[in-house]
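Researcher: Sit down with what I've pasted below and flag anything odd:
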Amino acid sequence: MAGAPQETGRGAGYGLLGFLMMSFFVLGLTGLLAAHVAPLPLDRALQREAVFDEALAAARAGNQAALEALRPRLGDSARNILPAGPDFEAKVAAERTAMRARRLAEAEATATRLRWMVILVTFLAGGFGAAMMLAASRGTARVARTPEIG
């Protein structure tokens, strides 16, 4: 069959190009995840600040029931400031400072983990894409060297 068309490998090349694009897509999703996760410690700190303000207002009004209702939203800070007493404002100020230090440490740890995650996924995606393109170049070279049978 001297006139039989030879396969050029373009279909396989397009498939491998799709794999390469997927590796960049995964890297982009990783960056999107990192952009979403990075501000979480700040968000948590701002929410806790608002709860501290609510607790101070409830204590000034002498509303013990409202203070106890805030316990779940106070989280780990509740054990340090409740029950309210004469030094409640000083306890809230001290806990506010401690909470800020904890959130700062959390933000630094989160940023470090996100940097390592992006670095790792970048190398993995690059390696995956390079392996696919290497496989594509070897596959098209084999197809081009295949002699006609006939």
